[in-house]
Each structure stands twice: as C-alpha cells, then as structure tokens.
Amino acid sequence: MGFFDFLADAGSKVFGKDDPEPEVTLPIIKHIENSGVDVSNLKTKFTAGVVTLSGYVPNQEQKEKAVLTAGNIAGVSRVQDNLILGAPPADTAEAEKAEAEAEAAEDGKAGEAAWESRTYTVQPGDTLGKIAKEFYGNAMEYPKIFEANKPMLSDPDKIYPGQVLRIPE
Predict the structure, then answer these.
(1) Any idea what the CATH number is for the domain that residue 69 is in?
(2) Which residues of 107-146 are buried (b: 16+ CB within 10 A; e: fewer)?
C-alpha cells in the first residue's frame, strides 16, 4: 500500500474532455477490468489527478496490474494503493474494519516496497528488447515483460514514454 507517481500527460485516454472528476470512476474501473483484473470488490476515487484504489483483489499480480493500469491513464498523476489481497469477509462490518486496519497499518509504507515485481518507467527511445537487456541481460527476453503487461500492452512495439511497466523476476 502506498503512493505511486505517474506522468499525468501520458497514458490511455479514458476520460471525456468535459467529464467532471466525480463521474470518471466508471471509466477507470472499466479500464482496470479490461486489463484482466477482477474488479468485483474494487472501489476507486478520483480527485485532482489522484486515483485511490481500495477493496479486495485476489492476488499480488492483479493488485500490481490494477495500480499500473490506473496510473497509465492520461490525467492520472498518482495512485494511492489501499488494496487488500484475498476475498472480502462475508460480514460487511468486518470488511470495512479490515480495510481501515490495512490502511492504518500500511499508511507510511512505500508502495513499491510491498510489490513482488519491479517496475520501469519507459523513456524516449526505449523498446521492450532494450528494457529486457537492462533487466535480464538478454534483449530476447522481452516477451516476459510483454506477457506481464497484457492486456495493457496489445503489441510489443507499442510502448510510450512515461508508461510504467511491470518487470517480472
């Protein structure tokens, strides 16, 4: 849990030009769902360029995809990760208590410190091969990065500066 910073002027365009901020959470949820994340127990808020994600996701991979997908939206400069791994308790009061405790316990913890994957912000001139060479020592390992970022990435040749990618071990 924690904050993740992104470039606000880079990313997928999911907002309408005149959408007021309180009404943009549905496109964010849909965009996250399209990246393969189970959004049935996920909640979002969007204020002043900051997306807050809370609720439950089934595993670490889906948590990381949700944060990166939300952050790779044009207009989003920061994502607050308050997601909890696992299924929500059956009792609504227990679920709310667990969410509040998780937020309080993790409040000061750096966001990426709790991640299993590394992240990389794409720079001008980067290719997945170049990034793979940097992290794995072999440019031909780029499919690992591509697969870890599907369906956010639909083509290994279509990455853009400012995009934040998951880099699996």
Answers:
(1) 3.30.1340.30
(2) eeeebeeebebebbebeeebebbebbeebbeeeeebebbb
Number of structural domains in the chain: 2
The Cα 79–Cα 71 span in angstroms is 6
pLDDT tens sequence across 96-152: 666 665 555 444 444 445 567 789 999 999 999 999 999 999 999 999 999 999 888
| Domain shared by 67 and 10, yes or no | yes
% of the chain beyond a pLDDT of 90: 36
Is 94 exposed, middle or buried (CB count within 10 Å of its CB: 0-12, 13-18, 19+)?
A: exposed
**55, 75: one domain:** yes
What residue numbers bound the domain in which 72 lies?
Answer: 2-114
Q: Among 166, 161, 134, 160, which residue's Cα sits nearest to residue 65?
A: 166
Same domain? For 34 and 67 the reply is yes
Q: In angstroms, rounded to a whole number, what is the distance separating the alpha carbons of residues 168 and 148?
A: 7
**pTM of the full predicted structure?**
0.70
